[in-house]
Design goal:
This protein has strands at residues 2-8, 14-22, 28-36. The protein has 38 residues and is mainly beta.
Length: 38
């Protein structure tokens, strides 16, 4: 993915994270994951 941006939303032990970027043909794509801080 080009122009990748990572967004952490909120605080706490379980933090949702969104990763967004562009494909080679310019389409927006992304995925959601979760961070576990200990």
């Amino acid at each position: 993915m080009d122009d990748t941006q990572v967004y952490r939303i909120g605080e706490g032990p379980q933090i949702p994270v969104y990763v967004l970027g562009k494909t080679a043909n310019g389409q927006l794509m992304g995925f959601k994951t979760q961070l576990s801080e200990t």
